[in-house]
Amino acid sequence: MDTLIKPIITEKMTQLGEKVGHYGFIVEKVANKRQIKKAVEEMYDVNVASVNTIIVGGKLKSRFTKGGVIKGKTKTYKKAIVKLNEGETIDFYSNI
After folding, report:
1. Which CATH class, in words, describes the domain spanning 4-84?
2. Burial of 65 (0-12, 13-18, 19+ CB in 10 A)
3. What are phi and psi of 40, to 5 degrees?
4. Kind of pairing, strands 68-73 and 60-65?
5. Which residue, 51, 48, 47, 43, is CA-closest to 92?
6. Which of 1, 14, 47, 86 has the greatest number of beta carbons closer than 10 A?
7. Closest CA to 31 of 55, 48, 58
8. Which of 96, 93, 83 is nearest to 40 (CA)?
């Protein structure tokens, strides 16, 4: 099982990473904090101080088309905010 699905690369998370050392990841719903910590330490070769997790609920969406109203829902996912020890960083842009 791949615990980490993808990093969250938004303007807000990039600023948190530069200022405070917090990085965001979308993770498997069944992953716990210990598994997330181990996966980040192995993948990026850093020391993790703490992990906070959030389950983000899906939103109801609707749109109007010629055929009528189409209703749906976005996916629910789990987000992890990882705090690194002082002086350590993760560079997501090095592989581009």
Report:
1. alpha beta
2. exposed
3. -65, -45
4. antiparallel
5. 43
6. 14
7. 55
8. 83
Nearest to 3 by CA among 36, 25, 48: 36
Residue keyed to tokens 């990093």: 7
Handedness of CA 47, 53, 57, 59 (dihedral sign): negative
71 pLDDT more than 70: yes
Delimit the domains of the chain by residue range: 4-84
Is pLDDT of 34 > 80?
A: yes
What's the CA angle centered on 27, arms 40 and 38, to 5 degrees?
Answer: 25
Q: Exposed/middle/buried for 42, CB within 10 Å: 0-12, 13-18, 19+?
A: exposed
Which two three-digit tokens encode residue 44? 């990026």
Q: Which residue(s) pair with 81 in the sheet?
A: 24, 52
> Could you tell me the pTM of the whole model?
0.85
